[in-house]
Amino acid sequence: MSGALLSTRGLSKRFDGLQAVTEVDFDLARGEVRALIGPNGAGKTTLVGMICGRVAPSAGTILFDGEDITGLPAHRRIRRGMAYTFQITSVFAGLSVHENVALAARRRLTGAVRVDAAVSEALARVGLSDRSEEEAGNLSYGHQRLLEIAMGLVQAPRLLILDEPTQGLSDGEIEGFKALIREVREQAAILLIEHNMHVVMELADRVTVLNFGTVLAEGTPAQIHENRAVQAAYLGTG
Amino acid sequence: MSIETRRVLALHGGLVALLIGLHFVLPAYHHGNLARIMVLASYAIGYNILFGYTGLLSLGHALFFAAGMYGMALTIQHAGFTPAPGLLSGIVAGALISGALALLALRTTGVAFMIVTLMFAQAGYLTILYFGEYTRGDEGFVIQTAQRVLWGIDLSDPANRYFAALSLFAICLGLSLWLVRAPFGRVLVAIRENEERVRMLGYDIYAHKLGAMVISGTMAAASGAVYGLLFGYAGASFASVQYSIFPLLWVLLGGAGTVLGPFIGTLFMFYLIDLSSGITSAYMLIAGVTLVALTLFAPQGLAGEVRRRIWKGLP
Ligand SMILES: Nc1ncnc2c1ncn2[C@@H]1O[C@H](COP(=O)(O)OP(=O)(O)OP(=O)(O)O)[C@@H](O)[C@H]1O
Ligand SMILES: [Mg+2]
């Protein structure tokens, strides 16, 4: 199939009285790494929430792989190949690290052997292999973020949505994360909400800037870096 | 087979073996008690699947217990069924009613879910009273010894009764153990822990809760049907609120979300009341104080404490 993997048209969300997202037209190509940036409260989490089905849009349509998914419940969108990691880490705190990832894996894999292999691979990719039997709630915040990413990876998604994945990671872990995304992009398109501009500049093919719920600019990292409006709104250097 | 799996099988199989052994040594009084406890524990095991593993607190399980009991007793009494089809109709009645209630109640969560299940169970209780002509209401009716012969086995005989109760218990225990280690059961636990996360892993929450409620309700119904058959009586009190609260207490005491907890809790509470009522007429006070102490010092229940302190992998 040709065309975009993901498209939104006129996507809007109103929380009683507050217009969080306004008429967003957004296209994401297959294999693309797209960064979504914008000031706090710009509507980034709300926008991806509508895309993956956590938030019901007030208006607009969402196409995934050419099909209208606007009316589908979240779990059916995930089954079509989206994976979502939460901005506020949302792992199963009382379960082991292994079981957290296994739950994500079992949706598409059957048989303990295959599941265990996929879990081991995902944990190795994020560098948590030696933590596999620990209770997830006991992990540091940064490690919980990595666990979230492992839970996303093990689903073998076509579109991986990451909401501020590097928040709380150490510099070394951020380097590891960048290397990981360069690998993952071979298999999946990535939509990355990110505040760390170094990460955005290095990883993204294109950047979309959201401000007050509307798309302020879109372009390559270099173009965005040069864009005066973006600097004024976001980088604070205008 | 992993070492962990072997230990789990040894523990739960060991309990069943112990219960077989107890048949030969227990005095008649305790032997009869244990038969009753095993049936009630099966009811609690069913309750635990919904409450302990899925995290849904129902206050209406007496509806399912009674559906099984009356599905069995009414067909035997009025349709001339023999025990085997009688049991089957009790189980089917429980499955249908728990499925129907799930369709309605699962639209709600939390306190609303508790209230909806409570209201429907109360409606069930009133229905039994309303059709007093057939059910004989609160007074209930006796199932004659002659009507309780299953495949040539007289279930009113204490030894037969004990082994029938043990069979039910072993089946429920085994099913529960298998379920919570199977992928479906793992998802139930995950729903209890963090429902929104499970949804965003692509699982259909509603379908899983529906499945849990039907399995739970059907086990409760099987227990109700067997109870009526073994003890030869069906009465509306088994559909009352009290019988919805009992499994909650048993499971909390024994350890919610543990496979052995329901049995331990039922055994403990049965003998707590039995022993304290032998000492004083204020036995409910003793029982109450013990329960409060347990919730203070073992908030996860008895088996829950074992899991917390000794064996983390206890299913
Ligand atoms: N469930 C909700 N109910 C009401 N208002 C909400 C809700 N969720 C988000 N909002 C509001 O919508 C706006 C956009 O929020 P959103 O979380 O999408 O921003 P964001 O760009 O992800 O911000 P951040 O960078 O801080 O994560 C904010 O003003 C927020 O307060
Ligand atoms: Mg956000």
From TrEMBL, chain A:
List the InterPro entries.
Answer: AAA+_ATPase, ABC_AA/LPS_Transport, ABC_transporter-like_ATP-bd, BCA_ABC_TP_C, P-loop_NTPase
Give the UniProt keywords, A-Z: ATP-binding, Nucleotide-binding, Transport
Gene Ontology CC, one term = plasma membrane
* GO MF terms, alphabetically ordered: ATP binding; ATP hydrolysis activity
Record carries keyword Signal: no
Ranges for domain ABC transporter come to: 6-237
Q: Which Pfam families match?
A: ABC_tran (PF00005), BCA_ABC_TP_C (PF12399)
The protein here is known as Amino acid/amide ABC transporter ATP-binding protein 1, HAAT family
Q: Which organism is it from?
A: Roseovarius litoreus
UniProtKB/TrEMBL annotation, chain B:
The topology of this chain with respect to the membrane is:
Multi-pass membrane protein
- Example of a GO cellular component annotation carried by this entry: plasma membrane
Q: Show the Pfam families listed in the entry.
A: BPD_transp_2 (PF02653)
**Keyword set, alphabetical order:** Cell membrane, Membrane, Transmembrane, Transmembrane helix
Q: What is the name listed in the Swiss-Prot or TrEMBL entry for this protein?
A: Amino acid/amide ABC transporter membrane protein 2, HAAT family
Gene Ontology MF, one? branched-chain amino acid transmembrane transporter activity
Q: Which organism is it from?
A: Roseovarius litoreus
Keyword Transmembrane helix belongs to the record: yes
Residues annotated as coiled-coil are: none
Where in the cell does this protein reside? Cell membrane
Segments spanning the bilayer are 9-29, 49-74, 86-105, 111-131, 162-180, 210-236, 248-273, 279-299
